[in-house]
Amino acid sequence: MWYQESFDVIIVGGGHAGTEASLAAARMGCKTLLLTHNIDTLGAMSCNPAIGGIGKGHLVKEIDALGGLMAEATDHAGIQFRTLNSSKGPAVRATRAQADRLLYKSYVRNFLENQENLTIFQQPCDDLILENDRVVGVSTQMGLKFKGKTVVLTVGTFLAGQIHIGLNNYQGGRAGDPASVGLAARLRDMPFRTERLKTGTPPRLDARSLDFSVMQEQPGDTPLPTFSYMGKTEHHPQQISCYITHTNTNTHDIIRGGLDRSPMYTGVIEGVGPRYCPSIEDKINRFGDKDSHQIFVEPEGLTTHEIYPNGISTSLPFDVQMELVRSIKGFENAHITRPGYAIEYDYFDPRDLKQTLETKHIENLFFAGQINGTTGYEEAGAQGLIAGLNAACRSQDKDGWTPGREQAYMGVLIDDLSTLGTKEPYRMFTSRAEYRLLLREDNADIRLTEQGRELGLVGDERWQRFCEKLENVELERQRLRSTWVHKDHAAVAELNTLLKNPLSKESNLEELLRRPETRYDSLMSIASFGPKLLDSEAAEQLEIQTKYAGYIDRQMDEINKKKRYENTLIPTDFDFSKISGLSNEVVAKLSDTRPETLGKAARISGITPAAVSLLLVYLKKHGLLRKSA
Amino acid sequence: MTDTASPISNNETIAAQATAPGRGGVGIIRVSGPLATMVATQLLGKVPAVRKAEYLPFLDQDKQVIDQGIALFFKAPNSFTGEDVLELQGHGGPVILDMLLKHILSLKALRMARPGEFSEQAFLNDKLDLTQAEAIADLINSSSEQAARCALHSLQGDFSKLVQQLVTDVIHLRMYVEAAIDFPEEEIDFLGDIKINTDLKDLINQVDEVMAKAQQGAIIREGMRVVIAGRPNAGKSSLLNALSGKDSAIVTDIEGTTRDVLTEQIHIDGMPLHIIDTAGLRESPDKVEQIGIERAWKEISQADRVLLMLDSAKDEHHNPQQFWPEFFAKLPKDIGVTIVKNKADVSGIATGLSIEHDTPTISLSAKTADGVDTLKDHLKQCMGYEGNIEGGFMARRRHLVALQAAHQSLITGLDQLESYVAGEILAEELRICQQHLNEITGEFTSDDLLGQIFSSFCIGK
Q1: At residue B268, what are phi and psi to the nearest 5 degrees?
Q2: What CA–CA distance (Å, rounded) separates A12 from A25?
Q3: Is the CB of residue A423 less than 8 Å away from at least one CB of chain B?
Q4: Cis check: omega of the bond before B7, within 30 degrees of 0
Q5: Which residues of A touch B124 (CB under 8 A)?
Q6: Tens digit of pLDDT for each residue in A193-246?
Q7: B50 in helix, strand or coil?
Q8: Among residues A150, A161, A120, A118, which one has the least CA distance to residue A37?
Q9: Cα torsion angle, A243, A244, A246, A251, sign
Q10: Residue B325 preceded by cis peptide, ω within 30
């Protein structure tokens, strides 16, 4: 049976990718359907109750700069906020928040329910409806069919999920939810390359059974950070502390004793787990000389006693989990509320995706989130937003858009996935970005909001605030530039107390601010230099731009040099074996990835500059040299 | 959108030697790109009139004359590459040309052209006919291979070890710095430690040392390695003498490391050649002689070209592959071999080049020098002397440029760390440093770096 209405964009899955995808498409004016197997789990945080961190916080700010929800929801649900790397310079500073699971979920659900142009429907999606190599809709478990111009799949770990606790295993999505088996089987029949990944969670604990007095308290930061550019600390609920405790040699002995019943170490689990998020049994096995590992004791919320002990993810049998937990300081009488487990799931080789997250094999079908081999709410949300906006563009017959590597961590994420693929759950790190000094949390709005506005993603209020901030930055920059200080200036004595080397030649305030030892606030505190901007975000922005100016210029130079390759498109279905002179290995690598641009081709490991030149010469010879718009 | 007027604009300025390496004749350095006029101003004190040859001094940064020569300036699009082009024709001599190129590359934002890149650019800018695409592709391919081979050779021995050590140490340092940035909650923040500072200073000293040695030319070799192999008394020494001759070559005896392998560096028409005369290759029960033969094989495996000397007065010359199957079986596939049939004056065979059994074969008489010129031409062709292909000098310059740039990044990084505790800037400088070193040793990706971090530190909640 066909559902009577048809849609521009159909989103399958209501996790973090699905949420951002639905909202983006709806914001852009598309008639959007969000199809979820359970409305009550919309916006659920299935792993640890935290948002942000290094690299990830950057992604959240970028989602926010494009009008997305994740930052705003975190501001309304965060119960402990911190700025990481605050001592290391603005480019690598990142915001992280502990979130109240229930507050987060209800904020997201409420927001989704009130979004204009968005319809929510509960039914498991079982199949895609195709016409040749084009998707035209989806069908559900009960046989209901939805017609849609585009479809975005954001099905996360639910795709053929297999849960492991000790040597027992069963089919499932996140614990307590069903796996999406029918859809997985159907997708496996399509020409996508499928692989297995693995991830895990720790057992959850009852706070009333823990002794916090022997643990180290970790309060939030003051002043309290906010996530959204539109966020205010007044949005935050009550703030509480996290705690830190450690494993000990006794814990490690217990774990070693249980390895013979570990699905990881007995070969039951085939999927590849992340190198950076190992289970506790992995940590002990691989770093045997370490006597102790940190555990972050994170509250799950204000209204629950459940605790997420971050650092002891495990798939050991339940009896071993009990024993190991109780060997830890402060956990001696711990009651486990839910056992830890590992989960294996399907993902699709993201090299089968275009830069817009549309699949190369099936037109109008987009993939976002864990299905592409990533891990993390932030990575999922970022892809969701990009897939949603591109699906929306497609349904409106407009050109799509994805930020480049020089523009956003989102761009790094999607370019890495679609060009290099991934062998482990992909997580963002700042070291993945070659333009790290440009891609900062503080300037995500400057990098993206204008483009977001053009696409229809950014609302009036945000746009107004953005313009105001930009204007403040520019006006203040002009003022600093045109305020000159001569050696005989009345304030020089006071100024020299701030400088490493006393003023020797006439300088303007911008030049003085560029000196590493000066700060905007202290310069402005000199009477004739002030008053300082009241818009503290604009002031911060100006200061950072001024301090990094030399490096920003250098990275911009580097970007301009690469434009030549980035803008050169390689035709789809291009036969790389036709280029004489390329080695078989190079041809195989290029054919595997089918890079969309010369720039992407150059980034594939093992593709030499000479190979890129040969490709370029071939394209030129055959009149195939086209620049992307 | 198709942009036919300027299909693909290169906004970089590139420079390199446009003639093959050698000592004699005229050497040309070509600069192509938007900064060509800037280079002219810096180097000549003026931009020469378009398409007019001007005889001018070439100046270094202290306005000292490096060389005198002809400067030519071509305005885009009327130039070989279709970009602004400056050509400097000096008096040649690898050292002078190298100094000139070094100075040009030290100017802002220039980079060394990749092998075949001038022609590539010319092709992309419609300066060459479309039918020449195959030729351009071949040139890119062959010159890249040749460059890789030269680079590999200049990377043998001590230089390679030092650079590898350098790269290992840079990676090690980056591992600490990047881990501190990406995992601040993991109790591995060493940025405040004196360790990073000390390591960084050690690293700078190391680069200093490598550069000093490389500058002296002590450890980077240039030129082509030609091994003369053959049975005793095939006339290897006579050939060596004939090649190094009276007027065209300088013979420098370098004391052989063993009594069995003698290395000589000669120049043929300015082309540097390392001739290695190996011990006679023959079965021998003698232990000492066996060691000698092993060493000879080691030399052969590092050669660009092997000359197999045969006595044309003996039977062995008719079908060497059949006569010496074990020699050809053992010879690495990628090394070219030329059969040299000596003693034409005795056997009476005709001298000259022929192809026998798919192998270039030259008959000559080392004694009368009849046919030796043919061999010289053949060798020049083998090392790309007659084509537009880069040689050892360019490989060496590439390495030195990379080292210099790596050095600068380390110095800036140290300053940022010491003066301002700016870890993220140190990280950026180390990234740039590694990028430069990658040009010598090959690629090291950000994922490789993460791999190092995860295998060294226990990361993860």
Answers
A1: -110, 115
A2: 13
A3: no
A4: no
A5: 616-617, 620, 625
A6: 999 999 889 999 999 999 999 999 999 998 899 999 999 999 999 999 999 999
A7: strand
A8: A120
A9: positive
A10: no
The set of long-range contacts for B60-64, using a CB threshold of 8 Å and a minimum separation of 24, is B60/B99, B60/B103, B61/B103, B61/B106
Distances (CA, A) of B398 to A605, B20, B102, B161, B274: 22, 15, 10, 17, 21
Inter-chain CB proximity A429 and B182 less than 8 Å: yes
Residues A33-84 pLDDT 10s: 999 999 999 999 988 899 999 999 999 999 999 999 999 999 999 999 999 9
- Local structure of B253: helix, strand or coil: strand
Contact partners, residue A333, CB within 8 Å, separation at least 6: A209, A210, A211, A326
* Cα distance between residue B77 and residue B86, in whole Å: 13
Residue B86 neighbours by CB under 8 Å, 6+ apart: B30, B31, B32, B36, B37, B39, B40, B48, B71, B72, B73, B74
Q: Say how far apart CA A610 and CA A588 lie, in whole Å.
A: 16
The tokens of B252 are what?
A: 């420098």
Q: Which residues contact A309 (CB under 8 A, 6 or more apart)?
A: A202, A203, A204, A205, A295, A296, A297, A298, A325, A331
Q: Does B184 touch chain A (CB under 8 A)?
A: yes
Nearest CA in chain A to B456: A287
Distances (CA, A) of A506 to A43, A217, A263, A519, B135: 57, 51, 70, 19, 59
Tokens of residue B402, six digits = 């990379």
Strands B13-17 and B110-112, sheet pairing: parallel
Contact at CB, A88 and B184, closer than 8 angstroms = yes
Q: Which residue has the higher pLDDT, A173 or A381?
A: A381
The separation between the first and the last C-alpha atoms of chain A, rounded to the nearest angstrom, is 42
CA angle A497, A502, A505 (to 5 degrees): 135
Contact of A136 with A7, CB cutoff 8 Å: no
Contact A92, A430 (CB under 8 A): yes
